[in-house]
């Protein structure tokens, strides 16, 4: 999906190059992803019309450091003084979009199992699986390398923070509950106990 840019004043040279670089140059009726504004005094009107959209001001050649500071204080995301190179404008556009774009959810997948790290939700296909805190953390650890056998020492250290193995059934009991919950959602035979070593997911 292309990024929608709004130039508040027609600039055929910029429009042509931006389109050739894959941007969609839109008009005032559209909802832009970024606005290229000629004058920061129009910022409030721009935000009233388009919401909290990122704005780069393309200032006149007589603009100075004070103009730049005032523009940033008013809420502009960047300020570029004319004359500027198209390559610099393009770099500034990409930088502003990186700063202002929401971070995508990191989602881990292993077979039919998905774990959304931002929302801490787990599903098998379309079926949600409710996990307790350590069950969830154990699953995430196993999902980092689903076919690898993690030793009990590794899992107890990384998930529970244990420094020595000792005699504990904590890992085994959590792995058993995790296995039952995933199987009930249709994941099949997962969370495999490799006898004498540890666990793997698939």
Can you describe this structure?
With 202 residues, the protein is α/β, with parallel strands linked by helices. The protein has 2 domains: 4-100, Rossmann fold, CATH 3.40.50; 107-200, Arc Repressor Mutant, subunit A. Helix content is 38%, strand content 21%. The protein is built from 7 helices and 12 strands. The strands form 3 sheets. A 5-stranded parallel sheet has the order 2-1-3-4-5, with helices on both faces. A hairpin with a 4-residue loop joins strand 7 (113-116) and strand 8. Helix 5 (133-143) packs across helix 6 and helix 5 packs across helix 7. The longest helix is centred in the middle third of the chain and has 15 residues, at 86-100. It is elongated. The two termini are 35 Å apart.
Topology, element by element:
Blueprint (H helix, E strand, L loop, with lengths): L3 E4 L4 H9 L3 E3 L7 E4 L5 H8 L4 E5 L5 H10 L3 E4 L4 H15 L6 E4 L2 E4 L4 E4 L2 E3 L3 H11 L6 E2 H9 L9 H15 L7 E3 L3 E3 L2
Parallel strand pairs: 1-2, 1-3, 3-4, 4-5
Antiparallel strand pairs: 6-7, 7-8, 8-9, 10-12, 11-12
Helix pairs in contact: 5-6, 5-7
**Main β-sheet, spatial strand arrangement:** 2-1-3-4-5
- Please identify the structural class as seen in this structure: alpha/beta
Tally of helical segments: 7
Can you summarize the main beta sheet? 5 strands, parallel
What portion of the residues fall into strands of 2 or more residues? 15-25%
First and last CA, distance: 35 Å
Question: Over all CA atoms, what is the radius of gyration?
Answer: 26 Å
Question: In the CATH hierarchy, what is the architecture of the largest domain at level 2?
Answer: 3-Layer(aba) Sandwich
CATH superfamily of the largest domain: Response regulator
Q: Which whole number gives the mean pLDDT?
A: 90
State the CATH topology of the largest domain. Answer: Rossmann fold
**How many structural domains does the protein architecture include?**
2
H and E order: EHEEHEHEHEEEEHEHHEE
* Unreliable segments of 5+ consecutive residues: none
């Amino acid at each position: 999906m292309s990024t929608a840019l709004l130039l508040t004043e027609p600039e055929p040279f910029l429009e042509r190059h931006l389109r050739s670089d894959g941007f969609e140059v839109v008009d005032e009726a559209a909802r832009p992803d970024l606005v290229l504004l000629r004058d920061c005094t129009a910022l409030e009107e721009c935000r009233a019309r388009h919401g909290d959209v990122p704005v780069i001001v393309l200032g006149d050649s007589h603009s100075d450091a004070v103009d730049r500071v005032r523009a940033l204080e008013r809420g502009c995301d960047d300020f570029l003084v004319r004359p500027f190179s198209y390559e610099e404008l393009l770099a500034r556009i990409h930088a502003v979009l990186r700063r202002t774009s929401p971070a995508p959810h990191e989602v881990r997948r292993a077979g039919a199992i998905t774990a959304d790290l931002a929302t801490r939700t787990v599903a098998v296909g379309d079926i949600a699986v409710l996990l307790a805190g350590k069950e969830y953390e154990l699953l995430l650890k196993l999902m980092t390398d689903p076919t690898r056998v993690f030793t009990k020492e590794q899992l107890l250290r990384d998930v529970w923070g244990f420094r020595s193995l000792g005699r504990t059934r904590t890992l085994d009991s959590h792995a058993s509950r995790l296995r039952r919950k995933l199987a009930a959602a249709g994941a099949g035979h997962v969370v495999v106990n490799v006898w004498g070593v540890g666990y793997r997911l698939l």
